[in-house]
Write the structure tokens for this entry.
Amino acid sequence: MNFNLNIMVITESRTVKILDTTLRDGEQTPGVSLTPEQKLQIARQLDILGVDIIEAGTAIISEGEQRAIKSIARAGLRAEISSFARLLRGDIDAAIDCDVDTVNLVAPVSDDHIKKKLKIDRETLRRMTMDAAEYVKEHGLKVEISAEDASRADMAFLKSLFTELSDAGVVDRLCFCDTVGVLYPERTKEIFSALSDLSTPISAHCHNDFGLATANSIAAVLAGAQVVHVTVNGMGERAGNASLEEVVTALDLLYGVKSGIVKEKLYETSRLVRNVTKMPVAPNKPLMGDNAFTHESGMHVHGTLADTSLYEPMDPGLIGRKRRFAFGKHTGRASVKMALEEMGITADDSGMEKILSRVKELGDKGKLVTDSDFQAIVDDILHIERKERIKLLDLSVVSGKNVYPTASIRLEIDGEDKVEAGVGVGPVDAALNALRKAMSGSEMNDLRLEEYHVDAITGGTDALVNVVVKMSRGDRTITASGVSEDIVLASMHAMIKGINRLYS
């Protein structure tokens, strides 16, 4: 399908380098803490993605952080590996000892940061920055200076500092940091245009406090920035950083500015990071959210089936995604017809109308119509007998103050009884681990639990809970739900529904 994006090409051969700071700034997301093994796993994926520079962490933080950075630096990756450091010998030595290619020196440049945080004056900061950069250079490493809180600094002072560092030949990149996300595109353009006459490449590091990180990053690149700092899924402190996926895709498809990123690997990378960090992505997040290429409205589905460009700005396959059609009160005949075709089922007009009516009825009640719900509706109306490959026969859970949560489960898998036990951080986790163990010897062991969500349907201590899971196998993803007064049983019902749907 031809997508007409009206691309505005800035220059015929304009490119930008990508510095990914998921492992440093991204890990500063509240609630995120990565092991050395997890950081190496993400770094390998970033390298496959085509990231030019990986900021692996801050070496001075801990011994574990140093192990992580060393393992990444020694992994033979194509990307340049960087460590973040303050203007202190101890920080710099820790980074050097990790065998990195680059030390990213953070220099607070706003007067508030200089006076209130460092408790020094501008000239002292100037000397400290120059000394630190020269020290790194003496050890044969590259230097990037990150001007912290640059967007609230005196621009004349900042420009003079950047010019002095550039003229001295002690830096490889100079980074303008919008540390608290107060820039806006027009101001960003002015600033980076003014810095574009420096002989040293300029980087842009934008935060998303006002939701403008992507826009500001793009504005910076268009005004001359040669490197842009990003994180996968826009992770980072407070409202996060500029999103790698958004910045790269928008620059390429809307402005004709290329990078070395393999766009088809973007969704794969996003999913890996969200799974490792346990940080979910909002359904309506651009490009990577579940709803980004999902259609429910009958009018939109009909139009999309006729010509995908009518209601999609781009082919989802360009970033490793597939379009999806959801069910609800806005569903039309086109969605039902297509879903039945995918299931290998034919229905006459009467059957189609009954299925559609049942789906809309559930939607009108405010219920999420999952993929397993749709299959159940179809089976009921069309009188389809479907063999369930897995059945829950028995489940018991033990949990307490001084007891490891333990679950025992008895299943019927393809007609054979399976009994297993599992432990976990809680009763639900224990039950799911027992389920996974019971399935490990069958072909049904390649599924992934992508999301797990719980809602209380009624109030009180005996409230009904609705558990919704999203599961995938290969490139196929489905949703399923389970309802019970017992959250463990609701979870198991949802999982087993989903498993039967995936492996039917």
